[in-house]
Amino acid sequence: MVAAVAVVLGAAACGGDDDDSNASVAEGVTQVERQLLGEMTSDTAPGQLLELTRVIVPAGQGLAPHTHPGPQMGVVVEGTLTYSVFGGEVTIIRAAATANQTEEKYGPGQTIELKPGDVLVEPPGMEHTGRNDGDEPVVIYLSSLFPEGEPPATNVE
Asked: Which of helix, strand or coil describes residue 24?
């Protein structure tokens, strides 16, 4: 069963601050969707929650700059995601799982385009954002390992 919510990544889906997040979504600032596909705890990672989610970023929409409380790996399966790094470093794997696979690192101030088949690896606390400048939705599958009880994302200034 898929659980869908219109507000993705907590307040990070909105353009406003945490206090205004519900108003911003209601005003249509963004309608990013986070669909929880599965979650579980594991004896090998006590206190951590392993999640698999699908994120859908509609055309012309984006996420506020944010961080995650644990590591996250994602693959773009549809559309082109414009991804910006503000703090920390992201690893991008192009042509993942093929003979042509390459690995790239991006840091603060860098913006890149991620296309279907590109994989991103985000360490905890890395500050970043993503937006869809195209005409079709961007679809991303994410695997996350977050501390139990923590929000999946926190906005940053």
From this structure: helix
